[in-house]
Input
Amino acid sequence: MEIVCLDLEGVLVPEIWIAFAKESGIPELKRTTRDEPDYDKLMKWRIGILKEHGLGLKEIQETIAKIDPIPGAKEFLDELRSLTQVIIISDTFTQFATPLMKKLGWPTIFCNSLEVADNGEITGFKMRIENSKYTTVKALQSIGYDTIASGDSYNDLGMIKASKAGFLFKSTDKIKADNPELPAYETYDELLDAIKKVIA
Output
C-alpha cells in the first residue's frame, strides 16, 4: 500500500513568506527553507523581524487570503487523490494553512502551530515533532505504507530519501546539483507520471 507525501509551499502553493515579503515591503522575509536548511533558526529570525516591524498573525493572514494555489495544483492533487492516499507534510502552521487547504479541496495536512499572543503578535511556534517530514514518513512506513515523497527544499530531502520513491519538484539548481541521484521535475504532468509508474 502506497501513500504519497507532498510538501506544500513551492509545490502546491506559492511560498507564503515570499508573498508576505512583497506585500509588507520587507525583502529579508523572502528567505525560505530553500536558502536556510535550519528551520528553527529561520523561524526565530522571522519572528524577530515581525516583532521589529510590529507585524503579527493578522497581517500575514491577510496576505494568505490573496494567495491561490499554483496553476494546475488542485487538478494534480484531485487526480492523485483519485489514485492513492495523499498527505501534505509541511513545516508551515495551521493558522497559515487552513485557507489554502480550502482552495485545494481540503486535502489532509500534517503541519505545526504558531504561538500567538492576545494582541496577535507571533511569540513562538510549536513543531509537531522534531524533523517532522522524515519522522512522519518513517512512522507511516512503520504501519505498513510504502511512501512516495516529493518536495522542493532542504527540509524535504529527509522524507524524499527515506521513501520507496522520491522526487524533487520545482527545486533550486543548487539542491538539484547537490542531489543528482534524485529525479527532478518541473511540471505536474511529469510528477504525476512518475508517481503513477511507482503505484502501477
In short: The mean pLDDT is 95. The longest helix spans residues 39-53. The radius of gyration is 17 Å.
